[in-house]
Amino acid sequence: MSPDELNQRFAIQDHLTFEAGVNKLTRALVDNQSARAEIYLHGGHLTSFQPNGQSPLLWMSDLARFESGKAIRGGVPIVWPWFGAHTIDPSKPQHGFARTSQWQVAESSAPSGSETILKLCLTNNAETQSLWPHSFELTLRITVSETLRLELTTRNTGKTPFEIGCALHSYFAVGDIARTTITGLDDCHYLDQLDDNKSKAQQGAVVINEEVDRIYRETEDECTICDEAARRYIHVGKSGSRSTVVWNPWSLKAQGMRDFPDDGYRSMVCIETANAADDTRTVDPGENHSLIQLISGRLGASLPGH
Ligand code: BG6
C-alpha cells in the first residue's frame, strides 16, 4: 500500500500519519500529546522515540542504510526467528529475516490524546519459507505514550510446533558511555560471546569500557541505564523473556562496520529484551508467544553513589 492508501485507512488526526521516508521507504509518524515516534514498515523498525521534554531515547546511526535487504542500524531492529547466527546454516542471515522484511499495517487506534497504538504484521511467504519452513503470523504492537511499549507476538498458524529465538534489539542513546552504568543485572550470570561463550558472573553494575557482547541468563528484571552525562535514567522493562543481551561494539568493531560511525560506540548501548541461548521458545500450533519491552526515560538523575 502507498502512503496515501495507508493514510486513508489508518491515519488518525493528531496522532498518526504515513509518508515516504528515507529512500522512499514508507514510514509511520506518531505525534501525540506525550511523545513522538517514527516507524519504518521495512523491518517493522522503530527508528525514533522521543517523549515530550526529552531528547530521543533511541540511538540511530548517521550511516544507517535504508535499503531493501539491509537491516537499519539503530532504533529497534526485530531479531526473529533466530538470534545471532543460524545454528545449522551460517549462510542464512544473522538475526533472522524479520528485520529485513516488508511488514504490513494491521491496525491503528488512539485510546486517549496521549496514547497511540500501531499494529504491524508479517506472515509467511515464499521467501520466508525458503529460509524457515513454517507458517506464522508475527505482529508488533507499538504503543506510543510517555512510555514506549513494544509487544512482539509470534503465532504458529501451521500444524507442527516450531522453535523461535528473538530479540527487541534496542539501541539506546547515551551522553557518554564512559559515564554510563547499567543496573538490574547485578549478580546475574552471562555468556560472554567474545570469550567462547564462557559463563561469567556479573559483579555490581555493568560498566562498558571495552567491546561487550553478553547474553545475561535467567533474568526477568528491568534494567536501568544511568546516563550521568545526559543526567537521565532510561528504564527498560520486559516480559516473556528470561535473557537480556548487552552489546557495544567499541572502537575496533565500529571501524569495521560500514553503517556505524567510528566514534558511534561512545553514544550508544544496546539492551536487548531477548529469547536467546537456552531461552528459545517452542510455539505449538494455534498458540502464541509474546515478548514485551517497555522503555521510558527519567530526567534529573545522577549516578548511584554520586
Ligand atoms: C548482538 C549480538 O545482538 O547484535 C552481537 O550479540 C552482534 O554478536 C550485534 O554483533 C549486532 O549484530 P548485527 O547483525 O546487527 O551487526
Which features would summarize this protein structure in a list?
single chain; 306 residues; mainly beta; 9-stranded antiparallel beta sheet; 7-stranded antiparallel beta sheet; 3 helices; 22 strands; binds 6-O-phosphono-beta-D-glucopyranose
Please render the helix and strand layout as text:
Blueprint: H1 3-10, E1 16-20, E2 26-31, E3 35-40, E4 45-51, E5 78-79, E6 104-112, E7 115-123, H2 126-131, E8 136-144, E9 148-156, E10 162-164, E11 166-173, E12 180-183, E13 189-192, E14 198-201, E15 206-207, E16 212-216, E17 223-227, E18 232-239, E19 243-248, H3 250-255, E20 268-275, E21 281-283, E22 288-299
Antiparallel strand pairs: 1-2, 2-3, 3-4, 5-11, 6-7, 7-8, 8-9, 9-22, 10-21, 11-20, 12-15, 12-17, 13-14, 13-16, 16-19, 17-18, 18-22, 19-20
The structure holds 6-O-phosphono-beta-D-glucopyranose.
Envelope shape? globular
Largest sheet: 9 strands, antiparallel
Number of H/I helices:
3
Helix-and-strand structural type? mainly beta
Strand order of the largest sheet: 6-7-8-9-22-18-17-12-15
Rounded Rg: 19 Å
The ordered string of helix (H) and strand (E) elements is HEEEEEEEHEEEEEEEEEEEEHEEE
Mean pLDDT: 97
* Ligands (ions, cofactors included): 6-O-phosphono-beta-D-glucopyranose
Spans of 5+ residues with little confidence (pLDDT < 50)? none
Strand content: 35-45%
Q: What's the number of extended β-strand segments? A: 22
Question: What gap, in angstroms, lies between the N and C termini?
Answer: 52 Å
Helix content: under 10%
